[in-house]
Amino acid sequence: MNVRALLAAVALVAALVAATPAQQLDSQLVLARYEMAMGDLVAPKTMIFSYTISQAGPTDIEQRHRLYRSGLNVRDETLSDDGVGLKHKIVRIGQREDHYAVTRLAPRATLYQLLFLHASHVDGRLTYDYQATPLAVAGGGFTVTRVSIDGSTYLPRVIAFHTASASGHGSGQIAYGNVANHWVPLAVTIDAVVNGKRARERITWSDYRFPATLPASTFIAPHPLPHATLPPM
Hints:
The chain is of the alpha+beta class. Helix content is 15%, strand content 52%. It contains three helices and eleven strands, in the order ααββββαβββββββ. The protein has helices at 3-19, 27-40, 102-105, and strands at residues 46-56, 61-70, 73-81, 84-95, 112-122, 125-134, 142-150, 156-165, 168-179, 182-194, 197-209. Strands 4-3-2-1-11-10-9-8-7-6-5 form an eleven-stranded antiparallel beta sheet, covered by helices on one side. It is globular. The protein starts with a helix and ends in a 24-residue tail after the last strand. The model is unreliable at 6-20 (pLDDT under 50).
């Protein structure tokens, strides 16, 4: 067999392997690998990304932001409002946790019972769906109801949830994916009732970057320009 024929045979075998669906594993083995993958996962401490937020209901919002994060430090820049780019971006500096980080929201065996529902192929990927039931009465307003585990990384692909507060309640789901070897949120959709009125919110994340560090000046609020004053008459 000449070299060209050998390369063609290797390519054919690789194509057949790629086309063969992944073998379904026992649901308990998947959970064991899930717990191991979550235990090994480290959320990025420094990142830059864009996000858009669309809200329809009692308050309509359509905004695009760029966010810089280093640990708890956050610089949130509003770039457009109601689909119109802002001539002067609005900058907010503060500290807050990453509320959508997978390490924060993913259900763990210490807090939830996960009951296997079924396995399926989604976009060519094998996923395992589990119903999530809290082991204790939730003290907060956020409860995971379902999780879809990726069949190759064993990390959450989709987390479905219910949320409630004094002013309303709602349900939604958040999708995650791999960007530069980091498991990050891609989109979240929430349908809710707030003060008796229906509302819908969607957030999408994009343009992720993961620098090693960010300059300290990133998290220093810009000083306003001095106001011009006329000399006394």
